[in-house]
Amino acid sequence: MLISVLMPARNAAATLPEALHGLRNQRGAPPTEIVCVDDASTDATGTILEEANVEVVKGHGAGLVAALNLGLAHCKGDLVARMDADDLVHPDRLKLQAGMLAGDPSLGAVGSLVECDAPGLKRLEKWLNQTVSKEQCRNARFIEAPLVHPSTTFRREALAGGWQDNGWAEDWDLLLRLVEDGWELAKVPRQLLVWRDSPHRLTRTHDVYAEDRMFRLRAHYLARGPLKGREFDIWGAGPTGKRLARELEAHGLRPRTFFDVDRKKQRARGRPVLTERELPPPGSALMLCAVGAAGAREEIRSLLEPRGYAEGRDFLFTA
User: Fold this and answer.
1) Which residues touch 132 (CB under 8 Å, ≥6 apart)?
2) Which pTM does this prediction carry?
3) Using N-to-C axis directions, what is the helix angle for 64-74 and 170-180, rounded to 10°?
């Protein structure tokens, strides 16, 4: 088995040596090749790569999706491990992820726990590191991308469609397509990546990662997946729930009703707002829970599960 590490790099001279050092010092991993896409860098990135004894692919500055697909075309491995040029990798990462994929043929991608180096990402870090098993990743896939992209190793056959530029986050889009195609996602329950943040990171600067695009992405995959041929309700008559409803309307889908703990709310987007006292029995419709406040998911679970609702079957969190 060969692992191809796919790393795009653009003006990454300041952090690239550490990233490459971590990859060169993997312990007990299968044979590994490192494929780096120098995506039209204007700093010393190209020089560092040329001296690093890795396969260098020259990109044309056409963006991340183009760089990833260009690099993928040069990857020879049965497994493809993503890595960013500014992140730090644990020496056991590739060994553990390859072992997990070898042990479970249902898995299309395996991530890991991560450490986020920015204080503003600590809530996300906590959620990511609590979303580990196949069931947890599948049920949580509409909240956020359940696997951090540069922490993930993919089965090559699961990447048949490559990365796509659909006007929203390419990494989350890929994971949703994998699940749609029948693959499972999971994580090695160890922290194997330090996920560095910076003001110049694409997730902070490019409009495809804007919040409105993420609602559009959710609606797109909900419409052609869990909501296909199924009625639904929305838990959350506030801004988050109404935003999701608006995007679903673009697909010709409208909830039967909204539910909310706030008894003062009466109508949302032309639909009635009911309370938990009026919940129908589980199975009559899929409940999409679209509430973004801290602690809201725990509160909703405490109301739905005692009534026989099962997460993944009868309700999904979408924020």
Assistant:
1) 113, 186, 187, 189
2) 0.95
3) 60
**Cα–Cα distance, 56 to 71 (Å, whole number):** 9
Clarify whether residues 106 and 187 are in a common domain: yes
Residue 74, classified by CB atoms within 10 Å of its CB into exposed (0-12), middle (13-18) or buried (19+), is middle
CA angle (10, 13, 15) in 5-degree steps: 100
Last residue of a domain, one of 207, 230, 245: 207
Residue-level pLDDT, tens digit, the chain, 319 residues: 999 999 999 999 999 999 999 999 999 999 999 999 999 999 999 999 999 989 999 999 999 999 999 999 999 999 999 999 999 999 999 999 999 999 999 999 999 999 998 888 999 999 999 999 999 999 999 999 999 999 999 999 999 999 999 999 999 999 999 999 999 999 999 999 999 876 655 565 568 889 999 999 999 999 999 999 999 999 999 999 999 999 999 999 999 999 999 888 999 999 999 999 999 999 999 999 999 888 999 999 999 999 999 999 999 999 9
Alpha-carbon distances, residue 188 vs 19, 138, 192 (angstroms): 20, 15, 8
Q: Determine the 3-state secondary structure of 29 from DSSP.
A: coil
Alpha helices in the chain (DSSP H): 16-24, 45-50, 64-74, 93-103, 122-130, 134-139, 170-180, 202-205, 211-223, 239-249, 296-304
Q: Residue 265: which CATH number?
A: 3.40.50.20
Q: How many alpha carbons lie under 13 Å from residue 219 in its C-beta half-sphere?
A: 23
- How many residues belong to the chain? 319
The β-bridge partners of 114 are 193
Q: Write out the residue range of the structural domain in which residue 290 sits.
A: 211-317
